[in-house]
Design a protein that fits this description.
- It contains 14 helices and 17 strands.
- The strands form five sheets. An eight-stranded parallel β-barrel has the order 8-11-12-13-14-15-16-17, surrounded by seven helices. It has a three-stranded antiparallel sheet with strand order 1-7-6, with no helix packed on it.
- The longest helix is centred in the N-terminal third of the chain and has 23 residues.
- The protein is globular, with a radius of gyration of 23 Å.
Length: about 400
């Protein structure tokens, strides 16, 4: 549905047609030919204005066109695998120019359909900007100064063996789009130290700034403070560049979301993580995603998120549903570590997902909101699981 938008005058610019970019997409069934998406007929065409003083070079224009075409092909491949989250707005951003005016026109081709898609679209723009400032070749050099990788999966297995309970990945999390700010007096180092003292095997550190008020600086600060727990970089990964960036900031593991990434991306990124010595937690939400991920031989660490990332509704029975029958047999056969995520607040919740077959849990809200996160860990499990309790 198209909506009206406010207009405002802009300085005089030299116009440049964008017909070669807008409204086209690679069609793999026709080789390298281009096809027009069905929504293109409903889009108001506008010319992109560029200042004469800032005219891009032809090579850069061609590169932008190719990047856009590739993103359209990416969306088509993703859709064929049941992925509903689009990587980029298929019809371009909602900002257009007509004569001396700029206006914002929203339609289904440039408006996010849910919060996860909004996050991914923002992340795509953000990563592109970060890559310009720090190209991959310079990022790889920064890995020489990164702290040694810690065994994330090994820490979870050890905790499970020591306590007989799922190993805890405690989340250092200030806010979320669904709950807002979870903790006003947020000190990431103090929280991480309390989690570790309370018996957490690993930590998950939010890196997204816009939607979760997280930061890579928090991860660095936690490592520099001497916290020994391995660290998961909780970020919305869409490009391999982000993996190298997370490792340079001290991450021992990363999260890959099956609702966002096609199978080939998951395979490729998992191999990069293995090359860097990092663990890869692949997150699923439903049966189709679980089947896709189990079809990837390299996967050995799966998270089941009980939160629907499109609606943000939570149902912990989702964990049990995804671990029943042949899927559960396959997971046990391959000795895959399964992590229960979201909606875990009480010892009964922990017992429920453990009985379903998880060996670890990732918990944030229910313990970060406690005045004493260390006691929050004990309350979550119904007992003291710290090293001192043994």
């Amino acid at each position: 549905m198209e909506g009206l938008a406010s207009f405002r005058a802009v300085p005089s610019f030299t116009s440049r047609p964008r017909s070669s970019i807008l409204g086209t997409a690679l069609n793999p069934r026709r080789g390298n030919s281009l096809s027009f998406p069905s929504s293109s007929s409903s889009i108001v065409r506008a010319q992109q204005m560029e200042s004469k003083d800032d005219e891009p070079e032809p090579e850069k224009i061609e590169l932008k066109i190719k990047e856009w075409e590739n993103s359209m092909y990416h969306n088509e491949v993703a859709a064929s695998q049941g992925i509903r989250i689009r990587r980029r707005p298929p019809t371009g951003p909602p900002l257009h120019y007509v004569g001396p005016f700029e206006f914002r026109l929203q339609n289904e081709g440039n408006t996010p359909r849910n919060i996860l898609e909004e996050i991914i679209w923002h992340k795509d723009t953000q990563v592109a900007q970060l890559k310009e400032r720090q190209p991959l070749y310079s990022l790889k050099k920064a890995l020489d100064n990164a702290p040694p990788v810690r065994d994330f999966i090994g820490a979870l297995r050890a905790a499970n063996s020591r306590t007989g309970l799922p190993g805890l990945i405690a989340e250092v999390k200030k806010a979320s789009p669904s709950r807002g700010v979870l903790r006003e007096n947020f000190d990431p180092v103090e929280i991480a130290q309390a989690y570790e003292k309370g018996g957490a095997a690993c930590l998950s550190v939010l890196a997204d700034e816009k939607f979760f008020q997280g930061s890579y600086d928090n991860m660095l600060a936690i490592r520099d403070a001497g916290v020994k727990c391995p660290l998961l970089c909780k970020e919305f990964i869409i490009e391999a560049w982000q993996i190298y960036y997370a490792r340079s900031k001290g991450a021992d593991a990363i999260l890959l979301i099956a609702a966002v990434l096609p199978d080939l991306d998951i395979k490729y990124m998992t191999k990069i993580c293995k090359m860097l010595g990092m663990a890869t937690l692949v997150e699923v939400h439903d049966e189709r995603e679980m089947d896709r991920v189990l079809g990837i031989e390299e996967v050995e660490f799966i998270g089941i998120n009980n939160r629907n990332l499109e609606t943000f509704e939570v149902d912990i029975s989702n964990t049990k549903k995804l671990l029943e029958g042949k899927r559960g047999e396959e997971i046990r056969k391959r000795d895959i570590i399964v992590v229960g995520e979201s909606g875990l607040f009480t010892p009964d919740d922990i017992a429920y997902v453990q009985e379903a077959g998880v060996k670890a849990v990732l918990v944030g809200e229910s313990i970060v909101k406690q005045s004493d996160p260390e006691k929050g860990v004990a309350g979550l499990f119904g007992k003291d699981i710290s090293l001192q309790s043994v």
